[in-house]
Amino acid sequence: MFPILYSFRRCPYAIRARMALHYAAVPVALREVLLKDKPQAMLSASGKGTVPVLVLPDGSVLDESYDVMRWALARNDPDHWWDDALAGQIDQLVQQNDLAFKPVLDRYKYADRYPAFPAEHYRTEGEQFLKGLEVRLQQSRFLLGDSLGFADVALLPFIRQFALVDKDWFDGAPYPQLQAWMEALLASELFLGVMAKYKVWQEGDALTVFPA
């Protein structure tokens, strides 16, 4: 019996969870959902109404992407994405991303919903986080060293989303190391392998195993 993963293809939280599951080669029953029409089965498992939601065979539920990533890596982590010696730094970066950068990203992406300031104001706020990542990537190939790790995968979908708000601006911004880091990861089999399109799941559909 496979764990059940409720996911939405473009959600950055769901992307990083799928990347961890794909990397760890942990099979799940994928259920692609529409966030504007959430299935009752997902809401029954987690009243938060957000993705990802991972329902384990014993009935327990993980509804935070960080927890899904840690769960997957606890089962298989061949390239040592998680390093206990770096745990504090990993968690600090993820918290900065999720608690500080993500709200600014939302205001930048949906600036018409936040008319107190123009989009450029929110972009400038977000750049404070980008500048810190650029400094890190000037010192090492990845955010916390010279090999891909947990922090890189946890942050990538959010940097991608920020970049796509105005890709011409991002491509011309003074962040060459961050741009190269992002483009390399977006071209990787790991990322491309989790971005395939699936039809929206409905009760009674045949099983879709992920990773395929």
Description of the molecule:
The protein has 212 residues and is α+β, with helices and mostly antiparallel strands. It folds into two domains: 4-79 and 193-210, Glutaredoxin (3-Layer(aba) Sandwich); 84-191, Up-down Bundle (Glutathione S-transferase Yfyf (Class Pi), Chain A, domain 2). The chain is 52% helix and 8% strand. The chain has nine helices and five strands; from the N terminus they run βαβαββαααααααβ. The protein has helices at 12-24, 40-45, 65-75, 87-109, 119-139, 150-165, 167-172, 176-186, 189-192; strands spanning 4-7, 28-32, 53-55, 61-62, 209-210. A five-stranded mixed β-sheet has the order 4-3-1-2-5. A hairpin with a 5-residue loop joins strand 3 (53-55) and strand 4 (61-62). Helix 1 (12-24) packs parallel to helix 3 and helix 5 (119-139) packs across helix 8. The radius of gyration is 17 Å and the shape is globular. The model has no long low-confidence stretch (mean pLDDT 98).
Characterize this entry briefly.
With about 210 residues, this protein is an alpha+beta fold.
